Amino acid sequence: MTMSEPTEVSVRAEVRAWLEANWSPDRGLVEWRNMLIDSGWGVPSWPKEWFGRELPVALEMVVEEEMKRIDAVGVAKTGIRRLAAATLLVHGSDMQREKFLRRSLTGEDTWCQLFSEPGSGSDLAGATTRAEFRGNRWVINGQKVWTTSAHHADWGLLLARTDSNVPKHAGLSYFVLDIHQPGVEVRPLRQMNGYASFNQVFFTDAEVPPEMLVGEVGRGWAVATTTLMHERRGADGIRSWGMASDRPGRVYDEERAEIATVMEPYKWYPQRAGRVDLVLERARATGRGSDPVVRQEIAKLLTMSKAAEWTALRARAAQMQGRPQGPEGSLGKLVSSHVARAAARVHTLISGADAMLSGEDGPMGGLIAEILVSVPAGSIAGGTDEIQRNIISERVLGMPKEPRTDNDRPFRDVPKNLVV
Ligand SMILES: Cc1cc2nc3c(=O)[nH]c(=O)nc-3n(C[C@H](O)[C@H](O)[C@H](O)COP(=O)(O)OP(=O)(O)OC[C@H]3O[C@@H](n4cnc5c(N)ncnc54)[C@H](O)[C@@H]3O)c2cc1C
């Protein structure tokens, strides 16, 4: 007997029945998330042996709709743990998946991404943090920067150089590093919007056991590419980050506490996306909606924002048809940073010079000012706009590659402004 293929109707009925039987706002957050994970409804597009149901992405959206309908809390998917889980699902060993996937989905383990360095951000493959195999473990020395959430993290996704005698992409390896060890020093940095989401992270003989190498030695670039693809693809999803339900119940209380602590570094992410959702409300409240120039700019913004939403849906549809992660992710990320910047301009048009007032006295208690100083981050994080344009021109439009002089010689011979 063959099982019938799941359809929108069958999935909706099945998840609705399961939620009716199991959802209760009075459960603990971790208990509820474990139930979701065991049922396969927490990550329904994942493989069956790893907590999923192998549903196509389109049907995953049906599950999300059903959960949203009753305001049921989902598994922990935001922040770097989403990237950690997605990367380990593809490249991790069974031991790593066993150890990390469930605890990342319940939110018990938190993560940071140890990629960028003072001398390598866009040129990530130029990383100089070293991992040397000594005795029976990897020993890490060097520095990372821009590390979101390192001050809350249990584990880090580390890209480090294991060989300087081969071209730069071939000499990198990818590790899971325990942040809570003596050789790791995390120092926070403050941003212009007042938050301190980022850190510098220094390694002095930090240790990684051999079983925490992800993939093979020297193949770290391929693993990092998976992480970056997910990061870029997720860029349109950041709008809802950090928003807690205000409903009563233990599970909501614990989710609110999670957002207030672990998710604190992401509190400003909705502002970073431009808060297009506030534009009409602000235009009405200030009476600026009757100005034809302002109306025109609002219309342009909303048109662009809708088109961006549809681009994201197109990317999802491509994924649904089984096409590999590809250029749509880069397109979506570039579009979302355009939308964010356009939204900041429109907020300024609506609020005038008041837009610059931060603190309680400013428009919306300083929220508009926060939008203005948060929006530039979207054009930098997870690959700058210029890098996204390079990717689109080379991979989508088939234009000639940027001339490079550093890809075909040993990394140690590549000129750099650091001593390696
Ligand atoms: C909100 C936020 C969160 C972040 N979180 C993390 C994190 O958790 N972990 C982490 O590892 N990193 C993180 N980053 C760092 C981020 O990935 C880097 O800032 C980004 O990759 C750019 O690198 P860079 O800052 O070194 O700039 P650079 O690479 O030095 O770039 C400087 C300028 O030169 C341009 N440029 C560089 N190369 C080219 C080129 N080939 N063609 C055209 N123009 C070019 C860039 O577009 C940019 O305008 C975060 C950044 C932000 C803003």
Unreliable residue stretches: 236-240
Strand order of the largest sheet: 1-4-5-8
Distance N to C terminus: 62 Å
Helix content: 40-55%
Largest sheet: 4 strands, mixed
Strand content: 5-15%
Overall average residue pLDDT: 91
Walkthrough of the structure:
It is a single chain. A hairpin with a 2-residue loop joins β2 and β3 (137-144). The chain is 42% helix and 12% strand. The model is unreliable at 236-240 (pLDDT under 50). The protein is globular, with a radius of gyration of 23 Å. The protein is of the alpha+beta class and 420 residues long. The structure holds flavin-adenine dinucleotide (FAD). The site of flavin-adenine dinucleotide has 19 residues, from β1 and α13. Flavin-adenine dinucleotide (FAD) is lined by residues 112-113, 115-116, 121-122, 146-148, 377, 380-384, 386-387, 390, 402.
